[in-house]
Design a protein that fits this description.
The protein is an alpha/beta fold. The chain contains 10 helices and 28 strands. The chain has helices spanning 34-43, 57-64, 84-90, 93-96, 115-125, 171-181, 201-213, 215-222, 328-333, 353-356, and strands at 2-6, 27-28, 31-32, 48-52, 73-77, 101-105, 108-111, 129-134, 148-155, 186-190, 194-197, 227-229, 232-234, 239-240, 245-247, 250-252, 257-258, 263-265, 268-270, 275-276, 281-283, 286-287, 292-293, 298-300, 303-304, 309-310, 315-317, 320-321. The longest helix has 13 residues, at 201-213. The protein is elongated. Mean pLDDT is 82; it is low at 137-145 and 333-364.
């Protein structure tokens, strides 16, 4: 069986962090979000996958290649214009052939999703398309208003003829109504497991909380990462000064540097080659590769994009630190954020405070 992984899309200025990287490549600890998705598919016996990311497919190809593991083969499909989920599937028609296939979003966390059960239910029902939905087990036979699609579909190749070759084609709004109008069976099946979509920065930070707050998820996502004490994971190539303090849960990535008297308070991810200078404080934040916090600076409840800098002595709270080359529309849409010029930050609205306020785990210090 094959799978189509929808790994991006045009954001139209609503998610400036996605200009730095497609959401599927946003890092969670030591790997991008899409890698556990591919691993979950492979565990379910799916080794051939097509990735489509509307204009950003080349970024994912550069990151993953065609064979991220020996038992996985990836085909890449590039759509320069927005095609929608169904449109991206249609554009993989020749590659898919004449067999049942799965569609799944790449910018999500698949938490113990039982693909085998979903495929079995699909074949048993004789449906042309099965929607994996969150809902109750007694609502197996119909699309219900109380059931919410999870972005996972099991499809027969017969549905492809009902997708237009050009233009934006959505699964829920266009394809499914068209299938029903033409007498094809569409079924919703409650998914076993959980699906957490990473739609924006808020979902991204919530996902970090989910991973660090749950013992089983910590094992799933952090099992390959060395740790110094429980809930503090430190790559062997990272440097932590003897007077620095790491209060978990926290991940310190390859070649990261935490200098004298610096403090990291989790949940936090300090990515590869990041640096926190002396007396710098990083609290409940994510730093992408090469980000830097200057001496005496404080970063709290913030995402720092790759290679960005918070200068010494500056305090940044509830923000996104991104490149400066944003359009006026993107600056307007990014409420409570800042660029590389602290003087332009003003007084950001602390809209992530509510995300973190309920998460206060027992702290482990190193």
């Amino acid at each position: 069986m094959k799978a189509v992984v929808l790994a991006g899309g045009q954001e139209f200025g609503q998610c400036p962090l996605s200009r730095q990287a497609p959401r599927a490549l946003w890092p969670l600890a030591d790997r991008p979000i899409i890698e556990p998705v591919l691993a979950a598919l492979r565990t379910s016996g799916i080794g051939e996958m097509a990735i489509s990311a509307n204009g950003r497919t080349h970024d994912i190809k550069d990151s993953l290649g065609h064979h991220p593991t020996p038992d996985v083969t990836i085909h890449y499909n590039e759509d320069c214009l927005p095609r929608g989920a169904a449109g991206c599937v249609k554009d993989c028609e020749d590659w898919l052939g004449n067999e049942t296939f799965i569609v799944v979003h790449g910018a999500c966390l698949l938490l113990n999703v039982d693909f085998e059960h979903l495929i079995e239910e699909h074949h048993r029902s004789g449906a042309a398309l099965t929607v994996a939905a969150s809902g109750d087990d007694d609502e197996l036979s119909r699309l219900s208003l109380s059931m919410r699609p999870t972005g996972i579909y099991v499809c027969e190749p017969a549905i492809l003829q009902y997708i237009k070759k050009r233009g934006y084609q959505d699964m829920k709004e266009q394809l499914i109504p068209r299938l029903i109008e033409n007498g094809l069976k569409v079924r919703a099946v409650p998914v076993r497991g959980r699906v957490i979509h990473i739609r924006n920065e808020e979902c991204y930070l919530n996902a970090l909380v989910e991973i660090f707050d749950d013992v089983e998820l910590r094992e799933q996502f952090m099992s390959t990462v060395p740790f110094k004490v429980p809930t503090v994971w430190v790559d062997p190539t990272a440097y932590i000064h003897p007077t620095a303090r790491i209060v978990g849960p926290a991940y310190i990535g390859p070649r990261a540097r935490v200098l004298a008297d610096a403090v990291v308070i989790g949940p936090a991810i300090i990515g590869p080659e990041c640096e926190i200078e002396s007396d710098g404080i990083v609290h409940e934040s994510i730093m992408w590769r090469g980000a830097k916090v200057g001496a005496g600076a404080m970063v709290e409840q913030t995402v720092m994009a790759a290679d960005t800098v918070v200068s010494g002595g500056v305090e940044v709270r509830g923000s996104i630190v991104v490149e400066t080359n944003l359009s006026a529309a993107e600056r307007q849409s990014l409420s409570g954020s800042m660029d590389l010029f602290p003087a332009e930050m003003g007084a950001p609205r602390r809209w992530w405070r509510r995300i973190w306020s309920s998460f206060r785990p027992a702290r482990e210090a190193v």
